[in-house]
Amino acid sequence: MKRLSHIFLVYLFLITMLSGCAEQLPLEDMTMQLMLGIDLSKDNNLIFYETNPVFSKTSKKSSETIEVKATSIRDARNKFDTKVKGFVNGSKIQVILIGKKVLEHPDWFSLFDTIYRNPKFSLNSRVIAVDGPLSSIMYYQSEDNVLLPLHLKTLIDTNNRRNSTVQTTLHELHRQIYEKGITPSISEIKDGTQLRLTGTSLLNHKGKHVHSFNISETALLLILQKEERGEVSFTHFSLPINNKNELFHQDDISFSASNIKTKIKSAYHQNKFHFDIKINMPIYLGERMFPYNMSKNEKNFKKMVEEKLTKQFEDLIKIIQAKKIDPIGLGLYARAHHYAEYKKVEDEWGKALATSTINVSVKVDLISTGNVK
Amino acid sequence: MNFFRKYNRTKNLHRPPISSQNQQKTPLPTFISKSVSENISMVHTHFTLAPDLIVKKMVIQQTGSHAALVYMSGLANQMVINDYVLTSLLFKEETKNKSEDLKVLLGHQQEATTWFEIENAIFQGNSVLFVENHTNVFIFNTPGYPQRQVGDSQLEPSLRGSHEGFVETGSQNIAMIRRHLPNLDLKIKEATVGKRGKTKISILYLADVANPEVLQVLEKRIQELDVDMILNTGVLGELIEDNPYSPLPQFIITERPDFAALQISLGRIVTVVDDSPSVLIGPASFTSFFQNIDDYGSRWMVASFIRLLRYVAFFIAVFLPSIYIAVISLHIEVIPLKLLLSIGESRDRVPFPPLLEAFFMEITLEVLRESGLRLPAPIGQSIGIVGGIVIGQAAVEAGIVSNIMVIIVALTAIASFIIPNYDMGSALRIIRFPMMVVASIFGFVGITIGFMIFIGHFIALESLGTPYGSPLAPIRFSEWKDVFIRFPQRTLVNRPFSTRATQLRRAKNNPSKGDKH
């Protein structure tokens, strides 16, 4: 009994020496950051924004936003602390907004160092690029007083499920930055008359913003990445038939595709890479604005859709090649199958991809044409 | 501890020895004398200040000798004495019968020769007949002390079990168990414990099933007891348990004869304490406290579901408040954001740290529970309303505690009441408090360490020399058929290892399905 109690005391002593648990901070003494924003001012100073919820029932606002001028996220935290009542805590950050002005400068990613170094940071935060000044979004107050960070997070998540944008978390961004065979792509929002999602920002592997895809281009990108979720919906898809109408687009169809199978094959000859992308797409017709005898001309219809889709994919790839980036991650295929050749061009993969040939072929299966003829 | 021991020793020096008072009185002689009048005067000198003692002198018609009948008016049934004893002694003239034998209309009749036996007999409600020129007395079994009707068990109600609960009379309790187990191997060993209380203790077991070593341990512990009186089963249990410093109960105390009979059939030993409406069952294992008679009365899927609920409730009762404290004060990262926002909103007005808040609510709950228990039933209910609505609602409105804390405390309370055994439920409520303290200091690490200490203690604990953790701590997978999930009755063919039964099998060759084999 005596020995046991001695052992127990030793354990108790050791427990008190444990790190990580000593910092006791009840919820109400904490300023929980839900959103972090980084932007550049007109005179090229870094500005950090932070939004945290306000629990007090007497307050009309559900959240407060603070901006400080600082040199890094860590520096910003110290300055935030001087302005809010509780200890600033980044463990519940939902979204991180980066102004496009920041993205235009390469190497901005070094700002994020503390996020990955500090184990208490949440790595599930969504990273979002903002087209335009960040202040207009950070101080955006919707009429029904919804917490903006939560709104933005669900906006990204639901749109990702509808294949309108990528879902790049901090963790995923880290991979995309450090993985040489792929370049980062992050969601993009814009504050015009109303806050809205515009698509996907494409960065080169230094982090510099080079191009933006709109929502329908993003869907194609997701198919190529094999990251599409559930149904991919194609709308305003005009076919080459002479049925023009000024007011109503009477050459349009809409359809959705699910269970899309994308196969990517790589080859290396004549000193360059070759990629062969085959996409098998079962489609469900959802809308057809013109009369068409489907039972007779189904093959023709399919061919028209296939040609148009192939064209769209090819255009997308042309842009990617022109910008010398690789958001699809074709470099991963090159590395897997042609390691020696890839290793030589690894550091300049974007350039190597620009010179390679990429063929896309789309095969469409018409599963259903709907309830009416 | 040593300090206290020394302190006690010095204190005892000043205290007069207990037996000195008794020495001043002349002790009762061992044997009775032949003269009735001498015996009666002996009775009167020793039963002083006992107005309920009745001594009736008479001449027995059957033999013509002088005699005296002695009994306690409250303890003996005077109707029985009048109708069957006195009538036959005073009015039945049997000239043929010249022998020593007396004829009374009673089945149960004993003879005794010592004063010790006589004293015991009188206090047990029997009547004692002294006869002239006899060195022995006749003891007639005429008990008439107040007895309670056999009714439903208050503490352990059940749906399918029998609706009789133990009463305060030991012999009736034994009879109730015997009705379930009419078997020659059901043996009863009797002992009397307590210098003044002289409580009759009966040990019931199946001779060919119960482990003799375990029986010996129990018997030895009971025999070695040197106490004034055994008030009830709980007192006996605490006096003979293996580790009095453990929060966990080491004997099952039950009010249900059917449950006691079931445990005997599994190889456990039941101790019936006279004057106590419950019995002591040992050796107990931790998992046996989570079993209930209804588990066997209802179908196995339902029973298993409810039993799993109990184990979940065990974890809720022990850990929920401490997890809440740990999460709120140290690990807010693990809460989903939307929940966190609502917790933050309700915590905002609370001026106390989470540990104090939790302690405040938990202690309020315990006070309510205890006060509801001590009050008469109609008022007890209104205490529940006062506690539940007024304190719960008002405390939140006033900003003393948060909404979430009220939910946590309520859940914890409900969870601790689902444990079928009252002692185990109370033990879990006690364990909760140190858990809350370590959680508030060390967070999840503290909870883990706390649980490890609990497990360590649980593994080391024994009940009557058998492992308390069985079948979990010495792992016996085959016995898990009746632990977390109650398998169909047909598969429960073995007795638990934890009872160390000498006969392991208790059933065999039951059809596995309907009439198929």
From TrEMBL, chain A:
Q: Which domain of life is it from?
A: Bacteria
Q: Where is the Spore germination GerAC-like C-terminal domain?
A: 198-370
Q: Which residues form the Spore germination protein N-terminal domain?
A: 26-190
Write out the entry's keywords from A to Z: Germination, Lipoprotein, Membrane, Palmitate, Signal
Report the PROSITE patterns cross-referenced here.
PROKAR_LIPOPROTEIN (PS51257)
A GO CC annotation recorded here is: membrane
**Membrane topology reported for the UniProt record:** Lipid-anchor
Compartment list = Membrane
Question: Could you mention a single GO BP entry for this protein?
Answer: spore germination
Q: Which Pfam families match?
A: Spore_GerAC, Spore_GerAC_N
Which InterPro entries does the UniProt entry name for this protein?
GerAC_N (IPR057336), Spore_GerAC-like (IPR008844), Spore_GerAC-like_C (IPR046953), Spore_GerAC_C_sf (IPR038501)
Grouped into one coarse class, the protein's main location is membrane
Provide the family line.
Answer: Belongs to the GerABKC lipoprotein family.
Please identify the protein, giving its name as recorded.
Spore gernimation protein
Upper lineage is: Bacteria, Bacillati, Bacillota, Bacilli, Bacillales
